[in-house]
Amino acid sequence: MLPDWLLPYLHILRRAYPDGLPEKDYLPLLVVISEDFSERGLARLVADFIDGEVVVVENDAAAALSTRRPLPADVERVRAHLGASGYEPDL
């Protein structure tokens, strides 16, 4: 179960991706929201959203920020998509 403070972000992700998160947006999403969360908070939020494992999301986020960095255009596309769904840093 997610802590209450993560629930507004979960609702935004569900609004942004009502049919689930496309694979092409996964790594860019991790980069975008990594700016606003601790590694653990990010992993818990995304794992809950995609029904995944926290440790796998943690590893994927680390890779997205270093060795498997997505293209800047993809990061900006996902940032704009989230923004249109109500995502704001420091919500």
**What percent of the residues sit in helical stretches (DSSP H or I)?**
55-70%
The total beta strand count reads: 0
- Count of helical regions: 5
Oligomer: single chain
* β-strand amount: under 5%
- Mean pLDDT across every amino acid position: 94
| Molecular shape | globular
Would you identify the regions where 5 or more consecutive residues have pLDDT less than 50? Answer: none
Distance between the termini: 20 Å
Topology:
Blueprint lengths: L6 H10 L6 H12 L4 H12 L3 H11 L7 H13 L7
Describe this structure in words.
The protein has 91 residues and is mainly alpha-helical. Helix content is 64%, strand content 0%. The protein has helices at 7-16, 23-34, 39-50, 54-64, 72-84. Helix 1 crosses helix 3, helix 2 (23-34) packs across helix 5 and helix 3 (39-50) packs across helix 4 (54-64). It is globular. It starts with 6 loop residues before the first helix and ends in a 7-residue tail after the last helix.
Short description:
This protein is an all-alpha fold and 91 residues long. The chain has helices at 7-16, 23-34, 39-50, 54-64, 72-84.
List keywords for this structure.
91 residues, single chain, mainly alpha
